[in-house]
Amino acid sequence: MAACFVSGAQELRLRPDNVDAVVAAMTVDEKVDLVIGCGAGWGNVDAKFPGTAGWTRAIPRLGIPSIYFADGPQGVNMTRFREYDTRDYSCTFFLSGSTLAASWDTEAAEAIGHAVGYELKERGLDVILGPGANLHRNILCGRNQEYFSEDPLLSGKMAAAWIRGAQSNGISTSLKHFAVNNQETNRKENDSRVDARALRELYLKGFEIAVKEGNPGTVMGAYNYVNGVHACENADLLDRLLRQEWGWNGVVMSDWDGVVRQADAVKATCDLIEPGTEADKKALLDALENGSLPMEDLDRNIRHILELVVKSPSYQGYPYHDDIDRESHQRLLRRVAAESCILLRNEGGALPMKPGKVALYGCASYDLVPANMGVNGVNNGVYHVSLVQGLREAGFEVCRPILREYTAYVAAENERIRSAFPPIFAQFYRFDRPAEIIPGQEGGDRLTPEQKAMTVDLGIQMETVNRRWPMEEQAVENDAALITLARTTGEAFDRTASEFGLTTSERNLIETVSSAYHAVGKPVIVLLNVPASLETVSWREKVDAILVVGQPGERAGESIADVLCGAVNPSGHLTDTWPVRYGDAPADSHFPSEAGQDIQTLMTPRKERSGELVSNIDYTEYAEGIYVGYRYFTTTGAEVAYPFGFGLSYTEFVYDAMSVEPTREGFLARVTVRNSGSRPGREVVQLYVSAPKGGLDKPIRELKGFAKTRELAPGESQTLEIPVSTYELASFNAKKSAWQTARGTYTFGAGACSSEIRVFRQAVLPGNAEWKVEKLLLPQH
Ligand code: BGC
Fold first, then answer.
1. Active-site residues: which are they?
2. What is the 654 CA–ligand 1 centroid distance (Å)?
3. Is pLDDT above 60 for 753?
4. Taking 90 as the threshold, does the pLDDT of residue 630 lie above it?
5. Model pLDDT, residue 423
6. Which residues line ligand 1 (CB under 6 A)?
7. Does the predicted model carry a pTM greater than 0.90?
8. Helix (H) or strand (E) holding 602
9. For every residue of 298-348, which 3-state class applies, written as one string?
10. Are strands 524-529 and 480-486 parallel, antiparallel or unpaired?
11. Rounded CA gap, 705 and 40, in Å?
């Protein structure tokens, strides 16, 4: 009889119910490979999905596939065109995080998250690297536009909604950058030094809400240190707080090149080291060998990764389509970006405008900044509907001679600016914007010979840009002037204090256009295409209307035109306080506000620089504690340009009724809002709460809830319900390491912004409440 060897061992393949067995079957080499990414997909021709951020190692013998990550949060970032292929792989680039948050609309955030998640899945990927939920501690942080707000509740609620929307597709999100990542200058070395109360109430709160209400599949550790320990190697942060206290159990991945001490990262439950290098592998193998890294720690992290893998579309063999129908996403984006516009000023009802002849001034009118620059800008913002196109489609006639002069000038200037940077850099970042010109005053003569040559190369006839045309005549010829001012920021650099102010050429433009147009009774409207606040007090009275359009994404021109012509009522509200001047907020003196000027020196790692640690560079003291943004300005009564939550509308709303009732969890506020104006529109109700005196020192009021009406026709009303739990009313007592809500009378105020409370109601909390937590992340200085 022939020998018959029947192998009893079934081939072991990863399944949701055999993760432990798979871990046990892995070799040490395989284990180490799995906790280290396979490199980044940027510029990597071997990447399955070019231009994406990374992927995990496949172990075919155990049925473990790679899973793929793409950057967000403004959309799915991957290379638009591939070698040997003529298909367009572009994904929608949506509005920036802070522009989305300006909608104060969690349903919109969920819908946008859903659309991003859908595109990610249909492109064959598994994890979108977003949303970003860091707090806007300082108006100059270079990544504020990726994040939501200076308020942790607004940040957390928007992030949670976005995550729920994205993950409803069966993909995972990566909530980032955990935590206290509030400046870009020296971002990999800077130590954020923050007291326990501010840490809990402000910097961790948004993440806590996003984690508990959104349950992201992954969390990305930040580059910075938190009270002396690197975020990606911080067991207090990643294990004791995120996992044990908040009860979350997903995958923590490091930010790209964010790990310095690999074994410490593994021990701290940073499961995945990204993007992964040979040096990372060697360090882990050495640490296992010399016993400084226990195998159990590695196994635990591998279990986290495998639990993510089995949930992924790649593991499930999802047949993605690649030919994405983006039509409905475009419509969604156009509407949300329009509703997120914030009307700061509207004298004499300058807006909405009747279609007519408009003159567009300001270089950005012809070169909008639709998206965040840097790796998180999808397709690097190269594709968008221009303002000119949007206005034309809405029935406006755009003044042609002015358009021609600007087009020539902007193209030549952008070319000059970009050529100063290496191509990869220039594609990501546009630091400088062309200086403003006064069209018709000097004609093409202002161009240098090189610029003229470029203009000719670009096919633009010099005589069409050379025409002299006094501003007074331009004002007679057109029905209105639109001036667009823009700022560009991106990852790795902060804005400088001087960028907060207007340049001389911008001031000159506003002055010249306004006096000419006002002399003939025509309105001047300013569009602010900005990632964060800008100085407005010195010039706002010179113009009739100011509309903040933020970074509206690829339908920019249409979204803006929808608001200008009144098809959409702007219902956006500021997510930050706009100060009178840089320096007014206490955090301003603890921030590298001019660092951009000396960036080479400042980006040099600490170990390569000699001498003392430099404040705001090597470490940043969060000396203002909990008094960030409106918490400071409303409590002290210090003057602001525009308060947190501010935003006008084309219609008016009255708050007819308000009640606050006790519930099992805390309170339920009901606010009835009526559209008392003459146009349809939506209203955001912001619920601020003032705590009873006697307990911990608190800001005069804090945002504890918000809700947005549907579109209300004139005369129509809606009752909004806003729950506030006792836990949400708590402050953090650092000495006792406990969240505490003191008994007493709470004042609930419903308002349209932080300084305009329309209706108040009081409600009594009969007993004290306390939630003790472990003492962790304590300041070392
Ligand atoms: C950024 C992250 C990003 C990662 C991967 C890092 O430079 O800080 O936000 O997700 O790169 O692209």
1. 255
2. 44
3. yes
4. yes
5. 62
6. 53, 71, 129, 176, 255-256, 375-376, 491
7. yes
8. helix 599-602
9. HHHHHHHHHHHHCCCCCCCCCCCCCCCCCHHHHHHHHHHHHHCCEEEEEHH
10. parallel
11. 40
